[in-house]
Write a structure and sequence with these properties.
Chain lengths: 510, 661
């Protein structure tokens, strides 16, 4: 244990700030948002303090903190990070100040709104650092409440339908996972709910399959994977801008994270046997999501469907069971968070001005609002995985790695690359090119605050695109250990893979 | 018989510290930085934006020249130099670095791209004067140049691909520069998307290369080429052909290029003459060690090339737009280059790439100069007789015309002949020679038509375009014309000597052949089915016939070309309507794709989502759906949320109590 429990602080700080906002007067909107900004900035600063203490090249958990919680039930407060969760924690803490700044002019119920954001942040960090399954489940479910509120209270016209749909879907998946977790402890004989304790549980093939499917349900819905994706377009369209940003940037990542953290290590045999059909679903998501995106008349819905396609690549990389592909998938989760988050922010800035998301309502934005147009183009290019920007350094390793284990899957998925260019550039052309018409007339360009929100995102797009090593050197050892674990379990099924030893040896040899 | 002459050594060295080759990473980086600066603060620089951009590309041109001379000073076997710059991607077994490869092939490309690029930058000062996005145009030009330089200097398939894609982006920006016009924006998108189709081939080819060799670096992959299983090598060769066909506008992916004339004319000169479109040819030449192992695939490349050359030349004969004629001419000439690199005569292909870079850049810029003088008119039938009013444009165009028509002793003659001579030998290539010879005649014909209608004959513009008073362009525009005219006229000297006229690619006597030898693996033979000299004579005679035909039709009084058009009827229409290729794609691919997308969208809403909503309703027992009920529905879930929260709170509480007890 380190002297300062950084990870716990990352959960506590936003929670405390959320409480602080709760104590403030609902009238003092300006102080509320200032407190929210300070809270998210302090959390981000604190999260950076993880980096010096995090040993690059170590596959296992670091900065582990534990405290007894419910010993009688084998439940512990146990948190820690490995390469995968590290990146997702940083993504979360990085995106939140930008989200607050983007919502700077938010008025309706500012107190509840900003408190929800901070509460949500605490839960999101908790999900990524929890190393006890009950703790994980608690954060997983707690997260639903503020998100439900964000969509249901501050959303668009059809917000209730969207909020309930979001809630129901996630709840159903979560409950299945809870049943599986309880089974692991009570029936399969795990010593405790601690992550590593469950790793040691021996399971029959049938048990593995059923438990795998229960976990899979929870995470596939989160990702979301075809055909359980339809909650996402509704949730995205109805959510307020910041809700969409958080949803895209962080919440969807919990699916991919769950696959890597639980599905593959706990159920290696089932993961291997069920990988091909899952890859098929991922490919369907990539191609189908892109084709459906193309036909959307609402730009926000278009981006929502593009998420289905992008996350399809992530699932593809994870279940390709190849180190390069899976590491690419983790980096792609970060990239998607940055890029799609940026797209939702931009759409939000536009909507604030004109109150329309209908593509046909716009023409000539590039001329009317060149800064907005330029930033949108850069972000769109990042989204279509143009080399030199971040999307490519995630997508290419995914495809290259997948080709090594499942060539057919990689070849099918590559066609998503054409489709991505089609739907985004087509929408771009309709809205940004041509003479200034419709709602583009008189639209003002981005202001300094909005440019300030976008700047860190665009800088990251370029920086990661040119030099992604800081991400890969932290992610790859962890992913390598996971993939090797799955492979070894395939060779000797009676001996579930040990994560730490081989992986460390593998690292030494590099 | 096909023989392989193994001059490719597969040896790659490191640069001397501090040499120009060592610092070659600056060649693409300087224009890239300049582009970024101009995008951010260009507006404030006003006219000086052009100067910044020109300085940047000028730097690259000078640096490239120094690097070239350094390379020349090295012993022949040490002329493939890799300078590592930084790590890029290291993921598991997969590693790719930001490294630069300078070898003879890269060096000649560098010179072409930077110097022709520089001239086009200079030309744009005058051409783009008064444009409201003046500084952005120069930013895009710089970005384009930087992208192309990354493509040329990349030491691996993947770094080449980075440049490849960035070229796609910058051409998108440049073609759509005047995006207010919807047609232009559509053309830009079309170029990007069609190129992406080719990119799929490139990407799958890289997957295969990596599977076969465990690397994507040229220095590791190319020496291993003979060890790649032939089935894999065939697949790689064909997939890279798809990629090259996209960038270099070959059948079936050439449709983007003619539309891309929407961009400002300097863009056409840059993209469609000297740079972007040559990338496919460069790629095939770069990986020639792979093609050398499977000559059948090379033959496919050559057949695609000659088919494209013929199709595009036939279309060019009837178009009535001076830029479109040049566009189809470019497609056709690229076909020639594909014949060269496909048949193992990479030097001939690259030679034609260089001479074409000169004369086609010249012709495009000359067309721009004419348009500048004629209020942006592009119909040659409204021109005529510009010889006297635009003497410099006329004189330089004359040289460009002679060069592209393939008349000796101008540059195009030598490079085109070299390519066609290469088709004399390999089994299965004789047809390529015959068709290629016909295309030579067609080329001479349509380019003569272009030249005669613009510059000679009566001054039709006096009636057709009242109020237009053509004038010669400013020096910033004519100077590049003059310099390119010198290249067009004398470019043949790069690889032509008296000896090589009789027997081509004589590595002993011709510069380009000996210089490029370490970069490429030629696989031509030496038993031509017609001796070289008569073959060259035949092609030249056909070209002269083409010029004569154009003269008879368009200059000499008395022959009625309108009547001829009527008599040709269907054939004329087929050519004039560009063989309906665009219409065919529109009817099949576009409509099919849109239909599929529509079907999926409906499916998503009705079936996938419908099922979910149905289940939702069923579970909740809400047979009657009404506003009130729906509100209740929401409330009940709000209640569920509350209940869940209470439950969680209970667990927390239990934990606390337990902890204390």
């Amino acid at each position: 244990m380190t002297e300062i429990p950084i990870l716990t602080l990352l959960i506590v700080i936003p929670a405390v700030f959320a409480g602080l906002i709760g104590l403030m007067s609902a009238e003092s909107r300006e102080s509320i948002r200032a407190v929210a900004l300070v809270g998210t900035l302090v959390t981000f600063g604190a999260s950076l303090a993880i980096l010096p203490g995090f040993a690059v090249g170590e596959p296992g958990f670091q900065l582990v903190e534990s405290a007894p919680w419910i010993p009688a039930w084998g439940v512990t407060y146990l948190v820690g990070v490995d390469g995968v969760s590290l990146l997702l924690v940083l993504l979360t803490t990085f995106i939140m100040p930008l989200v607050v700044l983007a919502a700077w002019d938010h008025e309706a119920g500012a107190k509840g709104f900003f408190a929800s954001l901070l509460g949500l942040q605490a839960a999101m960090v908790g999900v990524f650092v929890a190393l006890d399954l009950i703790l994980f489940y608690v954060f997983f479910e707690v997260m639903l409440v503020p998100m439900y509120a964000l969509i249901g209270i501050w959303g668009g016209a059809n917000r209730r339908y969207a909020a309930v749909k979001f809630f129901l879907y996630t709840l159903v998946g979560g409950l299945l996972m809870l049943v599986a977790i309880l089974y692991l402890y009570f029936a399969a004989g795990a010593q405790s709910f601690a992550y590593e304790a469950i790793l040691g549980v021996e399971l029959s093939t049938t048990e593995q399959t059923w438990l795998f499917l229960a976990f899979f349900a929870a995470f596939a819905i989160k990702v979301p994977l075809f055909p359980v994706h339809t909650w996402l377009p509704d949730a995205h369209t109805e959510a307020p801008t910041v809700g969409s940003v958080i949803l895209a940037a962080v919440l969807l990542k919990i699916g991919g994270y769950g696959f890597l953290r639980f599905s593959l290590p706990y159920f290696p045999e089932a993961s291997t046997t069920l990988a091909p059909p899952i890859l098929v679903l991922a490919i369907v998501g990539i191609l189908y999501g892109a084709l459906v995106a193309m036909m959307q008349s609402d730009i926000k819905k278009l981006v929502a469907y593009s998420s289905v396609a992008h996350l399809g690549f992530v699932v593809l990389g994870i279940f390709a069971l190849d180190v390069t592909a899976s590491a690419g998938a983790v980096v792609q989760m970060v990239n998607h968070g940055i890029t799609t988050g940026a797209l939702f922010l931009l759409i939000g800035f536009m909507y604030d001005r004109t109150h329309s998301r209908v593509i046909a309502d716009y023409s000539g934005l590039m001329k009317a609002t060149p800064v907005f147009g330029g930033l949108f183009l850069v972000t769109a290019m990042s989204s279509v995985a143009l080399p030199g920007l971040n999307g490519f350094v995630g997508e290419f390793p995914i495809l290259l790695g997948t080709f090594q284990t499942y060539p057919w899957a990689a070849i099918a998925a590559v066609f998503g690359v054409i489709l991505a260019a089609l739907y985004l550039l087509w929408a771009y052309q309709r809205m940004f090119h041509g003479p200034i018409e419709g709602r583009a007339e008189g639209m003002t360009d981005l202001n300094a605050r909005e440019i300030g929100v976008m700047a860190p995102l665009v800088i990251l797009m370029v920086a990661i695109g040119l030099y992604p090593q800081p991400l890969y050197e932290r992610v790859t050892p962890t992913v390598e250990a996971i993939v090797i674990g799955v492979e070894e379990a395939g060779v000797a099924t009676e001996e579930p893979g040990d994560l730490s030893v081989e992986a460390a040896a593998e690292e030494d040899s590099q | 018989m096909t023989t392989t002459i193994a001059t490719y050594t597969g040896v790659y060295g490191m640069p001397e510290a501090g040499s120009a080759i060592d610092l070659a990473w600056l060649i693409p980086v300087v224009p890239a930085v300049s582009a970024a600066v101009l995008l951010l603060i260009g507006k404030r620089l006003g006219r000086y934006a052009a100067h910044v951009a020109i300085l940047a590309i000028g730097f690259s041109a000078v640096a490239s020249t120094i690097a070239f001379t350094e390379l020349l000073a090295l012993p022949e076997e040490a002329r493939s130099v890799i300078s590592p710059v930084a790590t890029w991607l290291e993921v598991g077994d997969f590693e790719v670095a930001w490294s630069i490869l300078i070898d003879p092939l890269a060096a000649v490309m560098l010179l072409l791209v930077t110097w022709v690029g520089l001239l086009i930058h200079v030309y744009s000062i005058g051409y783009m004067e008064g444009d409201e996005r003046y500084s952005r145009f120069f930013a895009y030009l710089n970005l384009f140049a930087a992208s192309m330089l990354v493509l040329v200097l990349g030491d691996s398939f993947l770094t080449l691909f980075v440049g490849w894609e960035l070229v796609g982006l910058s051409s998108y920006l440049l073609i759509g520069f005047w995006f207010e016009k919807r047609a232009y924006a559509t053309a830009a998108k079309k170029a990007f998307v069609v190129n992406r189709i080719g990119d799929v081939g490139f990407m799958i080819a890289m997957f295969l290369v990596f599977s076969a060799t465990g690397s994507l670096a040229f220095a590791e992959v190319l020496p291993m080429a003979p060890e790649i299983a032939s089935g894999t090598a065939v697949a790689i060769g064909l997939l890279l052909l798809v990629a090259a066909a996209g960038k270099s506008a070959q059948i079936p992916l050439f449709v983007w290029l003619p539309d891309a004339m929407a961009g400002p004319t300097p863009v056409s000169a840059l993209i469609h003459a000297a740079t972007m479109v040559t990338a496919g040819v460069y790629l095939v030449a770069r990986v020639s060690p792979i093609y050398a192992t499977v000559p059948g695939v090379g033959l496919t490349v050559a057949w695609i090339g000659v088919a494209t050359a013929l199709l595009a030349a036939l279309i060019a004969c009837t178009q009535n737009d001076i830029k479109k004629i040049l566009a189809y001419s470019t497609v056709s000439q690229l076909g020639y280059m594909f014949i060269g690199v496909g048949l193992g005569a990479q030097v001939a292909g690259v030679f034609h790439l260089l001479t074409h870079g000169f004369f086609k850049a010249l012709l495009f810029l000359a067309a721009g100069s004419v348009m500048h003088a004629m209020a942006d008119e592009t119909n040659p039938w409204k021109m005529g007789g510009l010889r006297k009013v635009m003497p410099i444009t006329f004189a330089t165009s004359l040289l460009g015309w002679l060069a592209i028509a393939g008349l000796p002793p101008f540059s195009g003659f030598f490079s085109k002949e070299e390519i066609l001579v290469a088709a004399l030998d390999p089994p299965g290539a004789q047809g390529i020679w015959v068709i290629g010879t016909i295309v030579a005649g067609l080329t001479a014909f349509y380019m003569s038509r272009w030249f005669f209608l613009i510059f000679l004959g009566p001054k039709r513009y006096e009636q057709e375009l009242p109020g237009v008073h053509p004038h010669e362009s400013p020096p910033s525009m004519t100077l590049p014309l003059v310099l390119l005219a010198v290249g067009s006229a004398a470019g043949g000297l790069l690889n032509a000597t008296p000896a090589s006229l009789l027997r081509f690619w004589d590595p002993e006597t011709s510069f380009l052949s000996s210089f490029l030898a370490p970069s490429v693996v030629p696989y031509y033979g030496d038993t031509p089915f017609i001796p070289h000299v008569p073959a060259v004579a035949i092609v030249t005679a056909v070209a002269v016939a083409g010029v004569a035909a154009a003269w008879a039709l368009y200059l000499r009084e008395g022959v009625d070309h309108v009547a001829l058009r009527e008599r040709l009827g269907g054939f004329y229409q087929l050519s004039y309507q560009r063989f309906y290729v665009d219409e065919l794609y529109e009817a099949t691919l576009e409509r099919g794709g849109r239909g599929l997308a529509n079907a999926f969208t409906t499916f998503d809403r009705v079936v996938v989502d419908g099922a979910v909503n149905g289940i939702g309703r069923g579970v909740a027992g809400l047979a009657t759906v009404g506003r009130r009920v729906q509100t209740g529905y929401v409330r009940s879930y709000a209640l569920a949320v509350a209940a869940g929260t209470v439950l969680l709170a209970a667990i927390f509480l239990g934990g606390l109590l337990n902890g204390q007890g």
